[in-house]
Amino acid sequence: MNVPPHAHTLWQQTSAHVRATADFVGLIALMWGFVLGTAMALYGSNDLELAGSISSHALLQKLPSLVTGLVLSVRLVLFQALEAPSHPALRTDALAALWTAWIGVAVFVACGLLGYVLGIETFGAGLADLALDELAQHTPPADVLRLLVRTSVLAAGLGWLGHLERLVLSGHQQEPSRSATRLLWLMVLWVLVIEIVDSYLAWLLSA
């Protein structure tokens, strides 16, 4: 079966992005989850409901998309400077960033929960089941949907920014380091703007 060239390029680009980002995202999530689990075991066992609410906000709501977006931004800047093809397609750039972000969020959540359980069991054996139940109760499906939508918008924008910078903003005589620095700033600002807008919209809907 013949694979269309754009599909092959998309697969190669997505695979490269995932290999370069998933381990960093997973390591950050594992360490952060372990810290939260340790705090939960040492200081939250007397009020599991409050500890579950804090852990949900600190681990499963804003942080997965924020960390994934920032790590992906660095990856896209390096990709653009070192590996990007000469004639990119906007669809390929955006879809590769989108797939990478979805995988990154899944890795963050999985590793974060693993670290959370390890932290709890290390300092408070037997509390993990109760803590996970509270965590699940304080993570409503609406927040999970918001996370997926926010990640999708964030990643598609990062792919578009990389494409725009490569084709429009970069001058032929411009230093690569200056171009990379500008692109990184644009991407970090995009990630922060999306997170702030999401928080503002959530506040308006809850008011």
In short:
By secondary structure, the chain is an all-alpha fold. The chain is 86% helix and 0% strand. The longest helix is centred in the first third of the chain and has 39 residues, at 5-43.
What does this molecule look like?
The chain has 207 residues and is mostly helical. The protein is built from 7 helices and no strands. The longest helix is centred in the N-terminal third of the chain and has 39 residues, at 5-43. The protein is elongated.
Q: Which structural class fits the helix and strand makeup?
A: mainly alpha
Count of individual beta strands: 0
Stretches where pLDDT is under 50 for at least 5 consecutive residues are none
Kindly report the average pLDDT value: 86
Q: Shape from CA axes?
A: elongated
Alpha-carbon Rg, integer: 19 Å
Strand content: under 5%
| Topology pattern, helix = H, strand = E | HHHHHHH
Q: Kindly state the percentage of residues in helix.
A: over 70%
User: How many DSSP helices?
Assistant: 7
What oligomeric state do these chains adopt? single chain
Keyphrases for this structure?
207 residues, single chain, 7 helices
Write the layout of secondary structure elements.
Elements: H1 5-43, H2 48-61, H3 63-82, H4 90-123, H5 128-137, H6 141-169, H7 176-206
Helix pairs in contact: 1-2, 1-3, 1-4, 2-5, 3-4, 3-6, 3-7, 4-6, 6-7
